[in-house]
Design goal:
The protein starts with a helix and ends in a 5-residue tail after the last helix. With about 150 residues, the chain is α+β, with helices and mostly antiparallel strands.
């Protein structure tokens, strides 16, 4: 082999060596880069795929916590002058308490709202500055978690 032909083969050999050292990219999926076709109509057979429904056990109420300030705000009945404080939400089982922030600091109080999760939705039960558990049906053993105490 002549030196001229070797010079021509060196770049080819280098490129082949580099190609062997790289990880091949996966094959593109069929139809990649195109819009997906419209779903086809299926036969009238019943849907047998599993569905998720909340069981009617205490486990279903555990899904209620944690709860967001936005959710409690919607059911709180508070006007524009007060907002649920996300840093003052206590939630356990199906009960929650939440502190309130006044938009105007001169209107700030020390009140707490009490909520219950029932039938798949939160509802406001009451409010006050010193919340007792038993009037709202909150078990004493979770009083510390929710932020209430029986005297």
């Amino acid at each position: 082999m002549t030196s001229t032909s070797l010079r021509a083969l060196v770049p080819v050999a280098v490129l082949a060596g580099l190609a062997a050292c790289t990880t091949p990219s996966p094959e593109p999926e069929a139809g990649a880069g195109t819009t997906s076709p419209a779903p086809r109509a299926t036969s009238a057979s019943p849907d047998t795929s599993p569905t998720r429904t909340a069981p009617a056990t205490p486990d279903a109420t555990r899904a209620a916590c944690p709860v967001s300030a936005a959710t409690l705000q919607r059911v709180s009945g508070l006007g524009d002058s007060h907002r649920i404080d996300p840093d003052q939400i206590n939630c356990a089982r199906r009960w929650a308490t939440a502190g309130v922030r006044a938009v105007d600091p001169s209107m700030q109080g020390d009140g707490v709202l009490v909520f219950e999760y029932d039938n798949g939705r939160w509802k406001k039960l009451g409010e006050g500055s010193a919340i007792e558990c038993s009037p709202f049906g909150i078990p004493a053993e979770i009083g510390d978690e929710v932020g209430c105490r029986d005297q």
